[in-house]
Amino acid sequence: MAYFDAASAAPLHPVARQALLASLDEGWADPARLYREGRRARLLLDAAREAAAEAVGCRADELVFTPSGTRAVHAGVAGALAGRRRVGRHLIVSAVEHSSVLHAAEVHETGGGALTQVPVARTGAVDPAAYAAALREDTALACLQSANHEVGTEQPVAEVADLCRAAGVPLLVDAAQSLGWGRVEGDWSLLAGSAHKWGGPSGVGLLVVRKGVRFAPQGPGDERESGRAPGFENLPAIVAAAASLRAVRAEAAAEAARLRELTERIRARVPALVPDVEVVGDPARRLPGIVTFSCLYVDGETLLHELDRAGFSVSSGSSCTSSTLTPSHVLKAMGVLTEGNVRVSLPPGTPAEAVERFLEVLPGTVAAVRERLGAPVATGTVRAAGPDLVVDALGRRCPIPVIELAKVIDDVPVGGTVRVLSDDEAARLDIPAWCEMRGQEYVGEEPAERGTAYLVRRTG
Amino acid sequence: MAYFDAASAAPLHPVARQALLASLDEGWADPARLYREGRRARLLLDAAREAAAEAVGCRADELVFTPSGTRAVHAGVAGALAGRRRVGRHLIVSAVEHSSVLHAAEVHETGGGALTQVPVARTGAVDPAAYAAALREDTALACLQSANHEVGTEQPVAEVADLCRAAGVPLLVDAAQSLGWGRVEGDWSLLAGSAHKWGGPSGVGLLVVRKGVRFAPQGPGDERESGRAPGFENLPAIVAAAASLRAVRAEAAAEAARLRELTERIRARVPALVPDVEVVGDPARRLPGIVTFSCLYVDGETLLHELDRAGFSVSSGSSCTSSTLTPSHVLKAMGVLTEGNVRVSLPPGTPAEAVERFLEVLPGTVAAVRERLGAPVATGTVRAAGPDLVVDALGRRCPIPVIELAKVIDDVPVGGTVRVLSDDEAARLDIPAWCEMRGQEYVGEEPAERGTAYLVRRTG
User: Fold this and answer.
1) Number of Cβ within a 10 Å radius of residue A358
2) Which family, according to UniProt (chains A, B) (predicted)?
3) Are the C-beta atoms of A32 and A224 separated by less than 8 Å?
């Protein structure tokens, strides 16, 4: 059994468990009360805030605990936008932010606010110049993650923070994926984190608002957490969150080096072991434990299921693994292949043997899924056929449209075209991505009687 | 040491502790994931939902878990109001709701909505007829607590629910104080609860929205908890919350009888042991474990401090114990004395000896506080004085204005008046309450050069 999905939720760190148990007896009372049980709870809460602030690199009175990272982001975005309402209603986010940021941005847009999504390179990184270009007179807030949750790419936060600072615009950093590894560098204004991503318990997020940042909490509030996070404090979990953040930080440097080497093995060896694979994300500026790749002609859901049967828990940004049947917005923004997508995110402590076993199991698993789907095997023979060909993949889901395309590409002569009819959202991303991987020319798409027609020209 | 503030937060029930520990190992993964750790988490979440729904008396798919009771109320009020936006923007609440309901109502009013606060009787109970009278064509939602958190008075929820149902208006019940004791009877539409009030862990609330109720979640959402409570589920705590709700329910009938007898002792004996005390709240229709009384000529904060030193943890609705220096809105709405207020709320399992010891300690503690404040002692002698008298209590906080009034009332003849000048918010409530307790006539108030003048006529 190997759990390789730490980017979703890390198993509870032993220190978190210990702190949680200890504070169940000491930390259940209302920290706002003046009797002994309340004072004891208040001491625990204050100490947790001090510890978390020290780890983040902020003042204790700048940090509040929220019920989750998602709630921290929602409260942070809404409060910062409202605080600068007079400046304007323009919000900047990167195209690869976590859904919590994008959902907050959607609400802002629905409410009449303006939104700019900054695109990313094929590595998943934003260009600081693109943030600079997006800044306007009426920009109230900019958001940028410290590192991407799906591909591990680190963002140039310090550079973007400087640009924002120069323009007088606060930058909110979603640091959920990186906070366990270290402080977020640079002159950011707001920061959000999530304890269960660093081995803390669920039920705890944190929101930092630097002194001097205009902030107006939205929605009903109360007197708790500086009026920024209403509701009774989740105290034993808060204590465990703070304690585990200190603990993982103490181990971070050594563990980062170790995991980086393990993910480097996967990055290097998967393309050699499995044909038709695209490893995505920045090869150098990345989180230590995350590596993501996509496999042509593979149904992501089936692959995840087979890997689970083989004892590996991973996640995927393929459309078939999402409830909406749309591929990951991150992979989409990067313009990379989305079919057969696998994200491996190693929790601290992952033994090298587990990674080696994964590399042993993966090739056969992918091959079996491909065989079941009738994926093409390169034959090298060119069949005689007409100059143009239509593949009707209507009603078929990812990866079938690409498989059908690959099967017939050799049936047209060089210079001939294949027209793939598809009504699957993933085809829009994966047919161009296939062309890029295969060195074929992607001509473009056009509306068809049903679905969309994707035009591919054989170039070799 | 006796903790008598269960209405703020109950100590963790042993079953909650046990369930929390067990699910720390099984319930940390993302229940939305399909691999084994995710499936295991999903099973735990589903089972907890079934158990909680059974205890509440609803369908599992009507119940979502939120990060706290406060968040459940906020989400429930906002979602129900938005769901019936087309009907109108009128909201009804009782004047004695929990602050979470009142804060949600404030936000609604600030946003342009209409609000009716239904008053309560001196017992703290609403009159169903007053709800019926408040219902309008454009009423989108009505809210009523199942029982009051400060005085324990049970509300006529079933009757009000019927009236609302007949008018086609959904009723949201804040059941935070009563859910551990039993289901909320009646045909309500929405319900909110809070685990740490019944001995569950902090970090868990629940929101029930009956099928057929129009509901539009507000703010950014995600795919979790039916789109009604965004953010990673606080799973181990949810499991513990559901398990402990079942456990406290199993013990509820016997424990309710036992605690009711103990609070009855306090209700009956405090007025006999301590002079000038008003026991507040409905003597019969009330929660088993809560009893509240106010002591004339006593500073609430000092009294709490002295009781804490004597080993008793209680809370108070006196103005001096609130950060805003205003008395509890509940006591205010009831029109009862707010000075020297003490709420005793017994956690299940409180031994009779602890209550007896409290009754032993209380009289001396109150007497000492009164002596320190120079409170009047009834002398029975009538001093000769003019027909009218002015007491300048400007700049003096509760309970000083009432103490000064009581000191001089015998200095005016029967029929003469005392004019008390005060700028303390509590005086507005406590001077009329003192008149009622003392059988003197409260004439009324008028603006003074500084503060307010309260007129009292000596009648005996």
Assistant:
1) 25
2) Belongs to the class-V pyridoxal-phosphate-dependent aminotransferase family. NifS/IscS subfamily.
3) yes
Our CA angle for B39, B42, B43, nearest 5°, is 90
Do residue B106 and residue A220 have CB atoms under 8 angstroms apart?
yes
Among A372, A373, A312, A376, residue whose Cα is nearest residue A342: A312
The identity of residue A186, as a single letter, is G
Give the N- to C-terminal CA distance of chain B in Å, as an integer.
Answer: 44
Token digits of residue B255: 């424990």
Shortest CA gap B86–chain A (Å):
18
Predicted local distance difference test score (pLDDT) of residue A386: 64
CA A432 to the chain's CA centroid = 22
ipTM of the complex: 0.91
Three-state DSSP class for residue B48: helix
Residues from chain A contacting residue B231 (CB–CB below 8 Å): 67-71, 100, 205
Task: Kindly determine whether residue A315 and residue B221, on different chains, have CB atoms separated by under 8 Å.
Answer: no
Rg of chain A's alpha carbons, rounded to an integer?
24
Catalogue the active-site residues of B. Answer: 320
Best mutation target, A33, A45, A222, to test chain B (most B CBs within 10 A):
A33
Contacting residues for B309 by C-beta, under 8 A, at least 6 apart: none
Which residues of chain B have a CB within 8 Å of the CB of A67?
Answer: 67-68, 71, 203, 231, 234
Indicate the pLDDT class of residue A380, thresholds 50, 70 and 90: very low
Q: Is the pLDDT of residue A85 over 60?
A: yes
Please give the average per-residue pLDDT across A269-296, as a whole number: 96
Instruction: Give the active site residue among A58, A320, A398, A435.
Output: A320
Report yes or no: A242 and A44 within 8 Å, Cβ to Cβ.
no
Using CA coordinates, name the residue in chain A closest to B221.
Answer: A103
Please state the domain extents for chain B.
Answer: 9-248, 252-373, 388-457
Q: Which CATH number fits domain A252-373: 3.10.50.40, 3.30.930.10, 3.90.1150.10, 2.40.50.220?
A: 3.90.1150.10
Task: Determine the pLDDT at residue B379.
Answer: 45
Search chain B and give the residue with CA nearest A69.
B231
- The gap from C-alpha B188 to its chain's centroid, in whole angstroms, comes to 20
Of B443, B451, B391, B384, which is closest to residue B419 (Cα–Cα)? B391
Residue in the structure block whose two tokens are 């405090």: B270
DSSP-based three-state secondary structure for B310: coil
Q: What is the mean pLDDT of residues B251-265?
A: 97
Residue B213 corresponds to which amino acid?
Answer: V
The DSSP string of B340-396 is: TEEEEEPPTT--HHHHHHHHHHHHHHHHHHHHHHT------PPPP--SEEEEE-TTP
Q: Which amino acid is at B197?
A: K
A383: which DSSP letter?
P
In the block, residue with structure tokens 């329910």:
B249
| pLDDT tens digits, one per residue of A140-159 | 999 999 999 999 999 999 99
A136 vs A102, A140, A174, A433, B324, CA distance in Å? 20, 9, 22, 34, 41
pLDDT band at A381 (very low <50, low <70, confident <90, very high): very low
Fold of A388-457: Translation Initiation Factor IF3 (3.30.110)
H helical segments located in A170-314: 235-273, 300-309
Residue B183: pLDDT above 60?
yes
**Collapsing DSSP states into helix, strand and coil, what is residue B199?**
coil
Indicate the CATH number for domain A9-248: 3.40.640.10
Q: Tell me the per-residue pLDDT of A283-303, one tens digit each, with 9 for 90 and over.
A: 999 999 999 999 999 999 999
Contact (Cβ atoms closer than 8 angstroms) between residue B336 and residue B278:
yes
User: Are A114 and A138 contacting, i.e. CB atoms less than 8 angstroms apart?
Assistant: yes
B58 Ramachandran zone, left/alpha/beta (phi>0; psi -120 to 50): beta
CA dist B20 and B235 (Å) reads 9
The whole-angstrom separation of Cα A52 and Cα A68 is 15
AA letter at B420: V
What Å distances lie between residue B178 and B173, B181, B356, CA to CA? Answer: 11, 5, 25
